Amino acid sequence: MRIKKNTWLVVGWLLLLLLISFAGDLLSRRKILSEFEDGAGPIMSVYFLAVGQGDATLIRTPAGEDILIDGGPDNTLIKKLNRYLPINDWQIEYLILTHPDADHVNGLVEVAERYDIGTVIMTGVFDQTPAYLRLREIIESENIQQQFIEGPRRLLLAGGVELDFFYPQQRLVDQLIDDANNSSLVGRLIFASTSLMFTGDLEEEEKLLKLGLELESDIYKVGHHGSANANSGEFIRAVNPDYAVISVGLDNRYGHPDYRTLNNLQKIGAKIWRTDQDGDVAIYTDGRQIVHCP
User: Fold this and answer.
1) pLDDT class for 26, splitting at 50, 70, 90?
2) Strands 44-48, 57-60: parallel, antiparallel or unpaired by DSSP?
3) For the CA atoms of 227, 229, 233, 238, what is the dihedral angle to 10 degrees?
4) Which CATH code is given to the segment(s) 40-292?
5) Residue 146's closest CA among 180, 95, 89?
6) Is 257 within 8 Å of 222 (Cβ atoms)?
7) I want to staple 202 with a disulfide (CB 3.0 to 4.6 A). Which of 101, 184, 212, 290 is the partner?
8) pLDDT confidence bin for 82, thresholds 50/70/90
C-alpha cells in the first residue's frame, strides 16, 4: 500500500515539532538548574499566569503531574498552557476551582473540552455563572472524578507533593452563598520544606486566623488580586511569605492591587511580583531553594 506524500509531510512536521519541543525543554531545564546555587534535585515548577484581571496558576510537580488552579476570565489560558506544557501533554491531573466567579472559571471551560482532566477539586457551591454551569455539565458528561472540599483534607501526590486544604470548613455543595468570594478554597501546596499558600478571593481572613492553622508559607498567591478587602496586616504577618505574587490586570477598574496590601507586604520584606507588570511569574523549587527565572 502506498502512503501519500502529503501524509509523510504531516508526519515529518509532527516529528520536527516534537524534536524542537524536546530541545527547548532541555535548554530551559539547563537554564533553570543553573540558577540553583547548591545544585538541585527534582524540581517543582509554579507558573502564575498573566491572564488579565483574573487568576490562573499552573503547577508541574517533580513527578510530571499538572495542577491547574483557576482559569482566568477568558481563553488566554489555552495559549499559556501551550507554552508551558510539553507538546504531547494533554492531561491535567488536578483541576482546582477556588470559587465560581467568572474571572476564575471562564478559562476552564475550553481546558475541560480540550484536555483529559483527572480530578476536579472544588466546593460545588451553587452559582449561575454560565461558564461554571457549562464546566459542571462537562464534568458530568465526561464522568470526571470530583472531590468536594467540605473540611480539612490532605492529598498526597506523586513526587512528594502535598495539597493541604483547610477551608471551607463545611459542606457547600449546591448551596447558595451571598458572596462567592467567601466560599473560596484555601490551602497550601507543600513540597519538602517549600510551601505555597493560595486563598482564592477569600475576604473573611479572620476566620482562618481564629482556627489556629499553620499559615506560614514561603510563597503567597496574594488574595483577591491584592484587594484591601483581604490581605490585612495581621493575616500577611501570619503567612509571612518571602515571595508574594499578585495576579491582576493592567489598569483594572477595581484599583487592584490596593496600596494598603502593597504596604503590608513591604513591611514584612516580601519580594513582590505582579502579573500586570511582570507578565507570567515562573518560580522553581527543589523543595529547599526557590528561584525566579523570567
Assistant:
1) very low
2) antiparallel
3) -90
4) 3.60.15.10
5) 95
6) yes
7) 184
8) very high
Q: State the pairing for strand pair 116-122/91-96.
A: parallel
Alpha-carbon distance of 40 to 49, in angstroms, equals: 24
Task: With beta carbons less than 8 A apart as the criterion, state whether 63 and 157 touch.
Answer: yes
Per-residue pLDDT, averaged over 97-104, amounts to 98
pTM over 0.70: yes
Residue type at position 28: S
pLDDT in tens, 244-254: 999 999 999 99
Pairing mode, if any, of strands 194-198 and 219-221?
A: parallel
Maximum distance among all Cα pairs of the chain, rounded to whole angstroms: 73
Handedness of CA 257, 215, 171, 185 (dihedral sign): positive
Read off the pLDDT of each residue in 129-146 and give the average, rounded to a whole number. 97
Going by the DSSP 8-state scheme, the letter that residue 204 receives in this structure is -
Neighbour order of strands in the sheet with 116-122: 145-148, 116-122, 91-96, 66-69, 57-60, 44-48, 281-285, 290-292
Reported as type and span, the H/E element at residue 241 is none
Specify the length of the chain in residues. 294
